[in-house]
Write a structure and sequence with these properties.
globular; 3-stranded parallel sheet; 12 helices; alpha/beta; Diaminopimelate Epimerase, Chain A, domain 1; 14% strand; 48% helix; 317 residues; 6-stranded mixed sheet
Length: 317
């Protein structure tokens, strides 16, 4: 709602002052779930056509508000075909002349989203030899780090330099190296602080559950944020338990971030069930099937976490 209100305000002012046409909206990496419907209803009132290109698990109910919806789940794929991959392919269709300049972007997107889809290997091959897999991972991390500090600014020229689209390869390399060094330092410090405070248990289905309070035992308002912190801790725990099913919950007063390996969860469905089952919990959220976040009212945290853990323990391995 905040985003559509701000964008609609700008569009209406430009229309009234300068006679500019009202825009068509293209939502990338967003817009495919029930949570997006309130915003989409606003766009329909103002006659703004909306297209969605997303790789989150879609809800059919959003399609009535869209003129087009590109999503790998519609054709038997999953979140491993990332929004960055889809966006690059659309860019090639719109302007084939830029293909050689952007052919490395899908590989970076796959690295940033930790895609395990077979398409990732194909995109890495397209990016080679100019960009190795490690290069793509570094660029993705640099982008993640810098975007945290940019917050709501688009940082167009900075992002172009990170992606080596600014016309200065030397500056690109120096900048990425600097950002990666700073990001890794911040991540290592955060993980070192929080690891001693992790609580663990074995669930009924045999999965290893790890819980970390990112509100009490992690640095706040800095990089890495709670979601990134939970992901980095999860990666380390997965390496410590090779071959075992692992679920990591990073929680705060009114939210929980989920990361999973080897447990066949369906987070959007779990959110819907929790919303119905926990009266007064204010449960919402979603994401991918095994990676996502859930919000709730602070006073119902224990009830939500207990029910969530029970559901995870009932999920197949």
């Amino acid at each position: 709602i905040e985003d559509v209100t701000r964008d609609l305000d700008f569009a209406l002012k430009d229309n009234a002052r300068y006679g500019q046409k009202m825009p068509m909206i293209l939502l990338m990496d967003n817009g495919s779930t029930d949570e997006d419907i309130p915003s989409l209803k606003v766009t329909r009132i103002y006659g703004l056509p909306v297209m969605v290109v997303d790789h989150h698990h879609p809800d059919e109910s959003v399609d009535e508000y869209l003129i087009a919806h590109v999503n790998p789940y519609h054709v038997g794929g999953d979140y491993g075909i990332t929004a960055g991959m889809l966006g690059t392919e659309i860019a090639r269709l719109v302007n084939p002349a830029v293909e050689s300049q952007i052919r490395h972007l899908p590989a970076i997107a796959g690295a940033g989203d930790r895609s395990e889809a077979p398409e990732r290997a194909h995109y890495l091959a397209l990016a080679a030899p100019e960009y190795s897999e490690e290069d793509c991972q570094d660029i993705a991390l640099a982008l993640d780090y810098e975007q945290f500090w940019l917050r709501f600014s688009d940082g167009r020229e900075i992002v172009k330099d990170i992606l080596n689209l600014g016309g200065d390869p030397g500056r690109h390399e120096q900048f990425v190296n600097l950002l990666v060094e700073e990001a890794n330092r911040a991540i290592d410090e955060q993980v070192e602080v929080i690891m001693p405070h992790i609580k663990s248990q074995i669930l009924a289905n045999g999965a290893h559950l790890f819980m970390l309070d990112v509100e009490l035992f992690a640095h706040r308002f800095t990089f890495p944020p709670p979601g990134k912190t939970s992901g980095e801790v999860h990666d380390r725990l997965v390496r410590e338990h090779p071959g075992a099913p692992v679920v990591t919950l990073g929680f705060g007063p009114d939210f929980v971030v989920l990361r999973s390996r080897g447990v066949m969860m369906n987070i959007p469905r779990m959110v819907r069930e929790l919303h119905t089952e926990i009266v007064g919990g204010g449960v919402s959220g979603g994401g991918h099937l095994v990676v996502g976040s859930i919000k709730f009212v602070e006073g119902m945290r224990e009830a939500v976490l207990d029910s969530l853990i029970r559901k995870i323990g009932e999920a197949p391995i």
